[in-house]
Design a protein that fits this description.
240 residues, 9 helices, 15% strand, binds acetoacetyl-coenzyme A
Length: 240
């Protein structure tokens, strides 16, 4: 029977590429999204991957959403915590709301999705939890005290939980993409973006599919001995 994968923020950007890649590898895939109904409907029409709407920042919505996915597809074997937002501002201009929105989605959202699925994975003695962090959680980024803090938190979460999952057949890993050609990066002012690209040794933005291939590997049986790891995929922009 096909394994079931749930990708948060799975209908756009890096998440869409992950959903499509996992489907091509034979998984039954569900993609969650928070708000863009039009993009989700288009994605489902183009790929045949069903989308589900809920806000990962809200624990109860995650519990309900996961129940809907599991009613349709069966127990989730692979969770990809991809949903994320930016609210960039230099710290002296950053509001409490900008801080909280990013922490609630990019860090608490990972807890909210992983926690309701954890016991099921433990009971079935198999699971894959793969979280999409960021280069900016590793190196920090001007105007992203909120985002960098949340993404660094995702790395700590992964390292702790990997130790708890290991005996239960659950691997927990994190991927730190660099700057990838998505709407999120295209929203950075062009001049700033060009100056960022000039610091990437491979000389270009990454492609969403380059991150999707990392996810597919971590989800596979071949990666069963890899847990608590951070895969850095940033074109050499920050070498750890
Ligand atoms: N380092 C040092 N100084 C910087 C800087 C940097 N990286 N970036 C901007 N500054 C300086 C500017 O030169 C300017 O200085 P002056 O006032 O002396 O001219 C000042 O900071 C900016 O002040 P502004 O009042 O213009 O700032 P703003 O309120 O308009 O904010 C910004 C602009 C939000 C910082 C904008 O420049 C921006 O979006 N920067 C990009 C941030 C970024 O890289 N975000 C990543 C998004 S992609 C992502 O997050 C995905 C992922 O995981 C990789």
């Amino acid at each position: 029977m096909a394994r079931v994968a749930l990708v948060t923020g799975g209908s756009r950007g890096i998440g869409a590429a992950i959903s499509v890649k996992l489907k091509s590898e034979g998984y039954d895939v569900a993609a969650s999204y928070a708000g863009n109904d039009e993009a989700a409907a288009k994605f489902t029409a183009e790929t045949g991957i069903k989308t589900y709407k809920w806000n990962v920042a809200d624990y109860d919505s995650c519990v309900e959403g996961i129940a809907a996915v599991e009613a349709d597809l069966g127990p989730v074997d692979v969770l990809v915590n991809n949903a994320g937002i930016t609210r960039d501002a230099p710290f002296h201009k950053m509001t409490k709301e900008q801080w909280s929105e990013v922490m609630d989605t990019n860090l608490s959202g990972v807890f909210n999705m992983t926690h309701p699925l954890w016991n099921g994975m433990r009971e079935r003695k198999f699971g894959r939890v793969i979280t999409i962090s960021s280069i900016n959680g590793q190196k920090g980024q001007f105007a992203q005290a909120n985002y960098s803090a949340a993404k660094a938190g995702d790395i700590g979460f992964t390292k702790a939980l990997a130790q708890e999952g290991a005996r239960a057949g659950i691997t927990v890993n994190v991927i730190c993409p660099g700057y990838i050609a998505t709407d999120m990066v295209m929203a950075v002012p062009e001049k700033v973006r060009d100056s960022i690209i000039s610091t990437i040794p491979v000389g270009r933005l990454g492609e969403p599919e380059e991150i999707a291939r990392c996810v597919a590997f971590l989800a596979s049986d071949d990666a069963g001995f890899i847990t608590g790891s951070t895969i850095t995929a940033n074109g050499g922009q920050y070498i750890v």
